[in-house]
Amino acid sequence: MKQEFYITAGKVLAKLKELGADGADISVSRGKIDELNVDAGEFSLARTTISNSLSIRALVGNRKGESYVNRYDDDAIAQAAEEAIAAANNSDSDEAEDVGENIGEHTFDTGWTESDLGVMYDRMHEFIGACKSEYPKAEILQFIVRGRTGDSLFANTNGTRVYQHGGYYSVSIGVSGHNGDKTSSMQYYGFSAEELAKPFMDNAEVRRLCKEIEEQIDTVPVAGKFVGDILVSPDCVAEFIDSVLASSVYGGSLYTGSSPWKDKLGQQVADTCLTVEFDPFDDRFVKGSELTSDGHLAAKHTVIENGILKNFMCSRYSANKTGHKRAGNYGVNCIIAAGGKSFDELVAGIDNGLVLNRFSGGNPASNGDFSGVAKNSFLIKKGKIAGAVSETMVSGNLHDMINSIGGIGNEQILDGSIAVPWMVFKGVTISGK
Questions:
Q1: Superfamily assignment of 2-215 in CATH?
Q2: Contact 397, 367 (CB under 8 A)
Q3: 293-318 per-position pLDDT tens digit
Q4: Most buried of 13, 88, 94, 433, CB within 10 angstroms?
Q5: How confident is the model at residue 364, as a pLDDT?
Q6: How far apart are CA 83 and CA 86, in angstroms?
Q7: pTM of whole model > 0.90?
C-alpha cells in the first residue's frame, strides 16, 4: 500500500506541475470499515465498506484551488488536477496561502492489521445478554461496532512525505428505558478501543448509561424557574468547552476579529482550576494523529493553563494571516485536568440544580449566550439527587460558566479520544414547565 501511494502521489504532483501549479499538497487515503449493527435488540446488519480518496490543494501564485475525488486511477488524477488548477486560476490572491516546508519522510504505523469480526460479534452478543439480565427495563435501540483500518500519505511539492497506517474499534450504544407504556428519552454513549479485550458492560460509563436509563422512565417536571448549579457529564463538558474555543481561539475568529479573546493572550480567561490541552500522543488515546491537516508533525498544545490563555489554535494559514504562532495540533484529543472531588462530593456541594447528562441546543451566540434542553438529567436538592426530571430548559453564558466553576471531578472519563472529568458550573438558569 505504501509504495502504491508513493507512486500515486508522484503522478499527482507531476501533473499539477505540468498544468502550472507553483506549489501543492495532496493526500491519498484508503479506509476499510467492518461493521455490525443491532437494532431493537436484534442483529440487523453486517457489512464491509472500502473507501478511497484523493484530495488536492494547489497554488498558482497565491491563488488556491482544491479538488477531491474518490479514486486515483490516471483519469481521476488528471481530472482532479485540472479541477484544482481551474479553481486556483479563478480564485482571489491571498498572501497567507502557501505550502508547508519540507519536514522530510516519516512513517507512522501502529501495527494494527484487521478487525476481528468474530470478537466483535461475541462482545455484542454478550452485551445484549448482560443488558437483558442486569437491566431488564433498558432496551437497546441501536448498537454499532465498527473495526476501522486506514492508510494515508500526505505529500507536498517541497518534499514532505508522511505515511500513516493504523486502526481501532469504535462502539456506539443507544438505549432507552421501557416499563409498560412508559418510556424514557433515548441516551447514547460511544467509545473507541485498540482491542475488545473486555465485556462492554465492564466499561463504567456503559454501566452508568444502562442503570440511569431505567431510572429515567419515571420523571417529574422541574417547578418554575431558578438560577442554580449544573453538574455536567464529561461528554457535555467537552461540547461546552469546544464551543468556547471555537469562537475564541481558532484562526477564523482571530483574523475576522470576532474572537472575544483576540487581545487576551497571557491573561486570565477562565477559573484558575481550568486547564485545557490537546495531546495526540497521550497513550490513553487510540484516535490521535501524528500529522496536522496542513502537513506539520503534530505536538502537544496547551490552550488554557490554570485559567490563563496560553496559546491560540492557529493553522499555518491562520498563523500567516494573524502573525500568531502555529498550534502544535488543531484540536486533536482534548484533555481537561481533573480536580479533587468525587462525584458524590460534587453532588453534595449543590443546593439546587441538575445533573446534566445530555444537552440539546443550537450553536451559542458569538458572545457565549446559549439555551437548550437538558435531557436524561436529574434534579439535585440540598446536596442529594432527587430523581429524574422531564426535559428541562437550561440557559446561560459559556464565558461566565467557565469563570464560575464550582468543582471538578477527580477522575477523567476516557472514551479513546478525550480525557475529561465531571464539572460543576454555577449560576445557570434552569426552567421547568
A1: PmbA/TldD superfamily (3.30.2290.10)
A2: yes
A3: 999 999 999 999 999 999 999 999 99
A4: 88
A5: 87
A6: 5
A7: yes
